[in-house]
Design a protein that fits this description.
CATH topology of the largest domain: FAD/NAD(P)-binding domain
Strand content: 15-25%
Number of strands: 39
Structural class: alpha/beta
Helix content: 25-40%
Radius of gyration: 28 Å
Shape: globular
Number of domains: 3
CATH architecture of the largest domain: 3-Layer(bba) Sandwich
Distance between the termini: 61 Å
Strand order of the largest sheet: 33-32-31-34-35-36-37
């Protein structure tokens, strides 16, 4: 570096290089912490690899997300419900740019500006040289240019007289027409492109070096990642054979299609998520071949001695990770930068990479987590120097095992592979140790500069009545629906809670304080809706209570109250509301039931009785009301972090529901919104739990024998939950016992 060349000193400002998904996450995180930054993008707009017009992008017209819509969106900016389960590349590009507009990220971005090189000066500051020759000096450098730009081309002996290309040059399926085509490589992109070849080429083949475990994109009608992520966290020794058995049941023996048998166990390599390739193999549209041995003229000779005459060999063999402008400042091993948590440079202070990770999860929410860590550390350097020094020491010395107990295959790609749950658990520990905030729903809402796009699936001026609206799930649902052009009618017995919620959402929100156990008040509520709105489009039965303890210690009055609120009130209200619902062209009766409506939980027999009965009643009503145009839907959440669950935890309720961390009420509310958009009879935030509960109830006699094996795990989870409540200031120890703090008891 020539220190004599002039530069502009940008003070404490931070430099972000790259305007793709990782760079956008980073910009939003810095903005949320009030940190000044500049962002450089060599192309004309945000989007990164998702922009087909971006020079060098590996994107092609048929590309779709391999993670599903509902698990792939950024925090506080979910993908629209109008998107398909697996959005296409144009939808993702539109989504990314809408994200940037919503959070005001365009103002700090400089487009059509490439970074040529970076240098760290004697003070540890970063001097960034732009393609214009301009030089600028920053406190920190964040490399967010991704890792799918430099194609990896294998060296194969012999000479091929046809065309050889890498997938980075592939754009559309018509390129295969009239050709005999071989796709080399069966990663997710390779499998996608092979499907294009199968449907368009004269003859199509795919060469695989090793066998893979094919995971279909849907399991039981649910996106595969949703099925896996929202189910219970089983130990690996149990999860692996269960899922492997399920795949074998659904797919059979894949070697009958010429595919090699996997040389590794399930979960030990990056998942191959594809349903179409097996379809084309089954129908003979494409044929599987082993690894290539060598070329001979227009023929490709494979390792088993077979050969094919071909016109085009297209390598879908991945990309060499690189960061050309800062390559000298990264330590590379097996073609991967060696970074603490795949983020922080150990050798060079304030050098960060975002997106340089391989994991078994959707990327965008992990980008949010990465960006949050970087922003917290950079803020600490200015505001809390002791914590900054503590974390800098961790960057130098800490070396956690983030494999989650999985022995990944021995390959360059998996040398830095992270198991997502192990990573998330460790990041949670770091945040608590250093006093950093968790990324909870609503964290980024203060940055919104424009309203979120309104999904077109709900008609204008829908009238939606929500009971239990002042509770945890009810409040979240009301907030999410308030962004839409709907008329909300919020009902709860807590008049003060309703008043506070109305003050937050606006005077147009209608509220009605009522005791749902009082039939006269229910009738008055329906009269109120009739007079003020003239119709009702959706009734959301969401109110519930739970009391824990042995049945013999319950009073008859408490038993009746629990049954009245949880079972009788929803039925009586539905009975009164049905005539109003009949007037709607989009009538929905949605009920928050609970997974306890399928799976009985110890120590809560009355609650289970009410929920079993409620689910049965709604399933029956679904048949009765369908001819009248009213769609009935049940949502079955498991343990949810609401005041009701906190009271149950304090009272020593059923520990089994704490085997996994409770889900947030925002998660349940988002599912309720999706059900209002796309009604379905039964759904659960953690879809895997729903299916496991149904399977378990096929053999209920086994429950008394099996459940004790999970009791200890549940008790550990309960202790963690109580400790978490204490750290959040919601619970405290008093005279050797747990109790809720007064503010939380009031909810």
């Amino acid at each position: 570096m020539n220190d004599d060349l002039p530069y502009q000193d940008c003070g404490e400002r931070i430099c972000i290089v790259g305007g793709g998904p990782g760079g956008l996450c980073m910009a939003r995180a810095l903005k949320r912490r009030g940190l000044d930054y500049e962002q450089f993008e060599r192309h004309s707009d945000f989007g990164g690899v998702w922009d087909l017009d971006n020079p060098g992008t590996p994107m092609y017209e048929s590309a779709h997300f391999i993670s599903s819509r509902d698990l792939s969106g950024f925090l506080d900016y979910p993908m629209p419900a109008t998107f398909p389960d697996y959005p296409g590349n144009r939808q993702i590009l539109d989504y990314l740019r809408a994200f940037a507009r919503t959070f005001g990220l365009y103002a700090q971005a400089r487009f059509n500006t490439a970074v040529e090189r970076v240098d760290q000066d004697a003070d540890g500051r970063w001097i960034v040289t732009l393609d214009s020759g301009e030089r600028r000096r920053y406190r920190a450098l964040i490399c967010a240019t991704g890792c799918n730009w430099d194609p990896n081309l294998p060296e194969i002996p012999g000479h091929f007289s046809g065309e050889i290309r890498h997938a980075v040059s592939y754009r559309r399926a018509t390129e295969f027409q009239g050709k005999r085509v071989l796709i080399v490589g069966a990663g997710n992109s390779g499998a996608d492109i092979a499907c294009d070849a199968a449907a368009n080429a004269d003859r199509a083949f795919i060469s695989l070096r090793r066998g893979y475990h094919f995971i279909p994109k849907h399991l039981f009608g649910v996106p595969a990642d949703v099925f896996g992520e929202r189910g219970p966290r089983l130990p690996l020794w149990l999860e692996r054979p269960l899922f492997q058995g399920l795949l074998r049941l659904l797919q059979g023996d894949l070697t009958r299609f010429g595919l090699p048998r996997p040389d590794h166990r399930l979960f030990e390599s990056h998942p191959l998520l594809n349903s179409q390739l097996l379809h084309h193999l089954q129908h003979g549209n494409i044929q599987a071949r082993p690894d290539i041995a060598h070329f001979e003229g227009d023929q490709v000779v494979f390792r088993d001695g077979s050969r094919e005459s071909l016109d085009l060999v297209l390598y879908a063999t991945g990309y060499r990770w690189s960061c050309r402008y800062a390559a000298d400042y990264f330590t590379w091993q097996h073609g991967r930068p060696q970074l603490y948590l795949s983020i922080f440079s150990r050798e060079h202070r304030n050098l960060f990479g975002i997106g340089y990770l391989e994991t078994n999860s959707s990327a965008y929410k992990l980008f949010d987590q990465e960006a949050h860590l970087i922003a917290c550390h950079l803020a600490d350097q200015l505001q809390r120097p002791r914590q900054a020094r503590e974390f800098q020491a961790l960057i130098q010395q800490d070396d956690p095992d983030l494999s989650g107990g999985i022995r990944f295959v021995d390959s360059p790609r998996h040398a830095v592979y992270l198991e997502v749950h192990a990573l998330q658990n460790y990041l949670r520990q770091l945040r608590r140790r250093l006093g950093w905030s968790d990324l909870t729903p609503g964290y980024f809402d203060p940055l919104r500069q424009a309203p979120a796009p309104l999904p077109a699936s709900l008609p204008m001026s829908d009238v939606i009545l929500i009971t239990g609206a002042a509770g945890g799930i009810g409040q979240c649902l009301a907030r999410q629906l308030s962004r839409r052009p709907v008329q909300l009618v919020l009902v709860d017995r807590d008049a003060r809670g309703l008043a506070a919620l109305r003050a937050e959402l606006g005077e147009a929100t209608l509220t009605y304080a009522a005791d749902l156990c009082d039939e006269d008040q229910l009738a008055a509520l329906i009269d109120f809706v009739q007079q003020r709105c003239g119709r009702l489009d959706a009734l959301v039965n969401n109110a519930a209570i739970v009391r824990v303890g042995p049945l013999t210690e319950r009073s008859p009055a408490s038993i009746r109250q629990e049954l009245d609120i949880n079972l009788l009130a929803p039925l009586l209200l539905a009975r009164l509301a049905i005539p109003l619902l009949r007037r709607s062209t989009n009538a929905r009766l949605v009920t928050t039931v609970s997974l306890a409506g399928i799976f009985p939980t110890p120590e809560s027999p009355v609650y289970c009785a009410s929920k079993f009965g409620l689910r049965g009643a709604m399933l029956a009503l679904a048949q009765d009301l369908a001819p009248q145009g009213i769609r009935v839907c049940c949502v079955l959440p498991s343990a949810t972090d609401t005041p009701m669950l906190r009271r149950e935890a304090i009272a020593g309720g059923n520990a089994l529901q704490f085997m996994d961390p409770p889900q947030s009420p925002e998660t349940v509310a988002r599912l309720l919104v999706r059900v209002l958009d796309r009604p379905r009879l039964e759904s659960a935030p953690r879809a895997g739990e729903l299916w496991l509960s149904r399977l378990a109830m096929l053999v209920p006699d086994l429950l008394p024998r099996v459940l004790p094996f999970f009791q200890r795990r549940g008790e550990r989870g309960l202790r963690r939950y109580l400790s978490d409540l204490e750290q959040r200031g919601l619970a405290e120890r008093h005279e050797g016992a747990w109790r809720l703090r007064p503010d939380d008891r009031a909810e």
